[in-house]
Specification:
Blueprint lengths: L2 H33 L5 E5 L6 H17 L3 E5 L6 H9 L6 E6 H10 L10 E17 L7 H10 L4 E5 L5 H13 L3 E5 L3 H10 L4 E5 H10 L2 E6 L25 E9 L4 H15 L2 H9 L3 E2 L4 H22 L5
Parallel strand pairs: 1-2, 1-3, 5-6, 5-7
Antiparallel strand pairs: 3-9, 4-7, 4-8, 4-9, 4-10
Helix pairs in contact: 1-9, 4-11, 6-11
């Protein structure tokens, strides 16, 4: 066999081998999509039990477990503004069996708030947004503060001594307070807590004067009457709190803040696995009774496909980056 003929034969052999490998990979992806999940799935919550992210994650996990016939294990990894949870996701294999309930802080605000992070936006793959909601400005139930105007007057009287809590540095509960200071000109000290439940408890005990909490996590205390709502941060009033004004209606202009929770995975997770999770979540969110439960929490169900959710998170990073810069907030 001459050299040219040998080269052609060798070339065709390599092409066949490449074709076989590509076909095997496509079969593997199809099999993964058909059989996923074949074992328990872990859902990381980058916050403590009892917070709105935890509530949302457990609602979704229960429904996914029922749909898949496989356990979905919720694992709380609070700390450092959600960074601890994100690190746990980064350490797990990119195989679709470890997911995270992402949020505005971890997947948008942190990139501008922290000078250096142990993860990048490119490390995260969006799957589906789950819940979009406003924050609510609350004070202690027996506080003399009855509305936002009262709070501004109290801040003026206690200049430099007024405090507000949050669920942690970099969360919307923190940035809402910073934006409130910026829009109203008040002086208040931020006191971060390790989770919304602790921040809210600080309001109820009188340790701090006010808090902008995620509406889903504040809902139980609002119903119990232990805190009083002064305003919501959405563009419209919340059906479940029709008597509570928006920030604009309360006299604070240019103040619309919404938070969100959504499922994410490590970048590099097989697309069939991402698509399988998205289909399951979309089916759950489309159920009337489940959507109603999310509305009872003060939010609305998500609607975005993986690519659209990635684009949404990219836009959120840009918008919150501008807000962080304008507020002067830092992670220090």
């Amino acid at each position: 066999m001459n050299a040219n003929l040998h080269g052609k034969v060798a070339g065709r052999t390599w092409l066949r081998l490449i074709g076989i490998v590509l076909l095997a990979l496509s079969w593997s992806g199809a099999a993964h999509a058909a059989g996923y999940p074949e074992r328990p799935v872990t859902l990381i919550v980058p916050g403590p039990p009892g917070g709105s992210g935890d509530i949302t994650a457990r609602l979704v996990a229960k429904e996914l477990a029922g749909a898949w016939g496989q356990p979905v294990l919720v694992e709380n990894r609070p700390g450092a503004g959600g960074i601890v949870g994100a690190q746990a996701l980064m350490r797990a294999p990119a195989d679709g069996y470890t997911l995270m309930m992402g949020n505005t802080g971890v997947n948008a605000i942190n990139y501008s708030l922290y000078p250096k992070l142990p993860y990048m936006a490119a490390d995260i793959a969006g799957i589906a947004d789950v819940l979009v909601f406003p924050n609510v400005l609350v004070v202690k139930a027996d506080s003399p503060v009855r509305d936002v105007a009262d709070l501004k007057r109290l801040a003026a009287a206690q200049r430099g001594r007024l405090t507000f809590s949050s669920s942690g540095i970099g969360q919307t509960t923190h940035l809402s307070g910073e934006l409130f200071k910026l829009r109203t000109g008040i002086d208040a000290l931020h006191v971060p807590y390790k989770g919304a439940n602790l921040g809210l408890a600080a309001v109820m005990s009188g340790e701090v004067a006010f808090m902008f909490d995620n509406l889903p996590s504040a809902e139980a205390q609002l119903r119990a009457g232990t805190v009083r709502a002064l305003a919501v941060t959405g563009a419209e009033r919340v059906p479940g709190l029709p008597q509570v004004p928006t920030m604009a209606q309360a006299g604070v202009d240019d103040f619309v803040v919404t938070g969100w929770f959504g499922l994410v995975a490590r970048a590099g997770t097989p697309q069939p696995a991402i698509d399988a999770v998205h289909r399951a979540v979309a089916d759950i969110l489309a159920r009337k009774e489940f959507a109603q439960r999310l509305r009872q929490l003060g939010g609305r169900p998500g609607v975005l496909a993986p690519a659209a959710f990635d684009a949404f998170m990219r836009n959120e990073r840009e918008q919150w980056g501008r807000a962080v810069k304008a507020s002067g907030a830092t992670a220090e």
